[in-house]
Amino acid sequence: MNDNEQPKSLELLSKLGLYTTIAIVIGAMVGSGIFKKPATMASQLGSPELLIAIWVVAGIITLFGALTNGEVAGMISKTGGQYIYFRRMYGDFFGFIYGWAMLIVVQTGSIASITYVFAQYTEYFWQLPRFSHEIEQSVRIFLPGIGEIYPLQDFGVKALAIFVVNMLSLINYYGVKSGGLVSAFFTWAKVAAIGALIFFGFAYGNGSFGNFAADTQGFSISGISLMGGIVAALSGAFWAFDGWNNITYIGKEVKDSNRTIPKALFWGTLIVIIIYVLTNLAYLYVMPVGEMAGSQLVASDVAARAFGSFGAGFVAAAVMISTFGTSNGTILVSARVYFAMSRDGLFYEPFGRIQPRYRTPANSLLLQSAWTSVLILSGTFDILTDMLIFVSWVFYALGAYGVFILRRKMPDEPRPYKVFGYPYIPIIFIAFAVVFVFLTLYNDIATYYETKDALDGETNVIRSLFGLLLVATGVPFYLFFKRKKN
């Protein structure tokens, strides 16, 4: 056997139980969104009842997606999760395109964005070094559709974020169990921190239950502008709930995965819904929705009233704990997608190798770490991930529709879990996803034409369509790997 070959018997280890798996589901969703999004959503809605309703609706729709996804996860316990599901449902091309989108920007961009927030909040306690403004501006790169970027800008923050990404990748390199333990610890730490914010907000926030019914002055329950606000607020809520399906990527490394993953998807998503609703109720109790709308960081303002002078520091620490855990969990699961692609002959062979001693997809972890570091240094990750929101929801809709395809193609395949309320639950989720995709595209086109003249068309693009273009860059790679495989 030469150095480039591995024995077929060498496989990833099944080390993760239900407790850790639920923690990974929760940790993938609870990042910085619950600390930042409620204030923006309050300004878009103007009504406390609508604000809570949006969080509940977004949570229920996410739960419907998780329940639907759970049936497929129960059938197919393979490393690679959604990538494997798309191959079974729609064939190699859609499977590869999904995996390519995860690698090129969706998952790597998410890791970059989350870890960057961690580094930003670190500056509350320690000032990170920076280059002078002249040096920062001296290195400029122009990217079509993005404009000018400055790789040296906020270099200290970027350097810390890159260090953390590589450190967490190294932890996961040394074993899935060590990565899972880190995820579990920081998940429950962030839940405890949010729980403390909720408790002290109600106990010592000097608020009023009357805030739950106090609309912003001049608020109207009708009109096109309100509908636009609801769509925008839903987008913010879905961003906070995103990541619910990440657990499927590590199917082979979960004990009794056919039963464990569906349970983890259900309980993890349900716990996050409860956390988010209670957190927003605490925010509203402490301050009216109109005051929330004017808050730069509502969590800090609530904590300042509940904890006094320690409030801002508490929230900074809570955001750091939350984003650190989310970054680790995303790093842990996402590398398995590119690993699975390589194992199927649809990606470069070295990234399908298993580290013999630690039994982890080491090369895929290193690839992910390197590309994420490039995105952090470029500073384009938030722009790129915004462009891929549209594509992500296209994949969500296709994944849910795949349940119907698999029931037709594989009727006799054992299903340890069948989606509750079939076919209505999947249909509701698919319909909602399709409407959301349509509205996102419509708003992007409208925004493009509104700002086109102001920007002279130089850096403005229809972001949804640009996201599709990014995904389409994978087509020549697919043709290359498919030809090589055949």
User: What proportion of the residues form beta strands (DSSP E)?
Assistant: under 5%
| Uncertain stretches of 5 or more adjacent residues | 455-459
Global morphology: globular
Q: What radius of gyration results from the CA coordinates?
A: 22 Å
Biggest beta sheet attributes: 2 strands, antiparallel
Per DSSP, the total helix count is 18
Biggest sheet: strand arrangement: 1-2
Structural class: mainly alpha
pLDDT averaged residue by residue? 85
Summarize the SSE layout with pairings.
Layout: H1 18-29, H2 33-45, H3 48-75, H4 82-90, H5 92-122, H6 133-138, E1 141-143, E2 147-149, H7 155-173, H8 176-204, H9 224-241, H10 257-286, H11 289-293, H12 298-307, H13 311-343, H14 362-378, H15 381-409, H16 424-455, H17 463-472, H18 475-485
Antiparallel strand pairs: 1-2
Helix pairs in contact: 1-8, 1-10, 1-13, 2-9, 3-9, 3-10, 3-15, 3-16, 4-5, 4-15, 5-7, 5-13, 5-14, 5-15, 7-8, 7-13, 7-14, 8-10, 8-12, 8-13, 12-13, 13-14, 15-16, 15-17
Describe the structure.
- This protein is mainly alpha-helical and 486 residues long.
- It contains 18 helices and 2 strands.
- Helices cover 70% and strands 1% of the residues.
- A hairpin with a 3-residue loop joins β1 and β2.
- The longest helix is centred in the C-terminal third of the chain and has 33 residues, at 311-343.
